[in-house]
Amino acid sequence: MSTSPEAAGYAPFEYAPPYRFLSWLGLIRGGDPQVVRRALLAIAICWLPLALLTFLHGDFLRPDYGNAFVFDFGTHARFLIAVPLLILAESLCVPRLAAIVRHFAASGLVRAPDRPTYERAVESTRRLLRLKVVEILAFALAYALVAWMVIGAPVGELPLWHGRMGAPLVLTPAGWWGLLVSLPLLLVLQLGWLWRLALWTRFLWLMSRMKLRLIPSHPDHAGGLKFVGYSLEAFAPLAFACGVLGAGLVLNQVVHRGASADQFRNLAIAVAGFAVLLFGAPTLVFVRRLMQEHHRGILAYGSFAIRAGCEFEDKWLVGAVDEQTLRAPDFAPTNSLYAIAGHAFAMKRLPFEPRSVAILAGAALLPFVPVALLSIPAEVLLGKLRGIFI
After folding, report:
1. pLDDT interval class at 304 (50, 70, 90)
2. Residue 265: inside a domain, yes or no?
3. Is residue 264 one of the residues assigned to a domain?
4. Are residues 175 and 293 in the same domain?
5. Which DSSP helix (H) or strand (E) runs through 45?
6. Distance of alpha carbon 13 from the chain centroid
7. Looking at residues 262-280, what average pLDDT do you find?
8. pTM assigned to the model
């Protein structure tokens, strides 16, 4: 006998790489993800050693600010903000995805004969997320990417607290720590979320292949599937993390290399578009089903509305229309029937709202606000702030 996901409290997207590594370190105990503790420890592993090593080496604060650790905005964005955010995002994103998974069954969209198929999809998602080989590949790929970055890094591109790239490779102690510990951990966290996103897409694709009980006249104008579209808002913390990584690099260019903030406007738009595409694309697996249901609704509810309209006309439009006629009880049911048919005709092909897209794009653009403020002259900015508060 299969176990109901609701009864078992399934959270099929709860653990992803580096789950096994963290369990081995004792940071995940008894199934408790302990995201706050892990986020703080990630800062202690990724960022704090860099600060201490640069302080001991004399690179924490240098006369040439562009090469000082304390003014390396890209490093702080990666290891002080993005790394803990990728961990903390689990507490916001995973429960929402789990609620969407459970709602497929709780709402009645999954028919009784298809319930075992649904439960197998949930369980296989959970099993694939915890595969040991995936975690091993994530670490291997992370270090391969680091090696590729070292080989392709232009000489003099990185601040001197790292050391010097090129041949030969000469790194400071902080540079080695960043290369061998901090950056690989950031990449593993990103790869873990990509694997989680791939399995989220797979799960939705499996749902789209089932004979879900979609209703063209559903008031959400998505056949009852609009709840899936709220996953975009669940991914907003990850979109913000994408923006943080991009904005940190841009701040280094603007502050230390004299680049204009305006020339990075297209980059900010590209990051927002990438976030919307990356996190919104999984829901597009339902587009074909929604188109089919829309066509079915137009025919079925259109025919229904025509029959109801013909009966109404035959009964009430054969003579003069007076006040007593307008008060007849047949008018209200007819209006209700037309409203139901109207929902079917207004059905959309996409299972999400523009509002969800705006929240996702806004989260990705928010970290670029400090960059945008740098393009405004100080006296103009102070004048605007004075006008707001005074």
Report:
1. confident
2. no
3. no
4. no
5. helix 35-46
6. 13
7. 91
8. 0.85
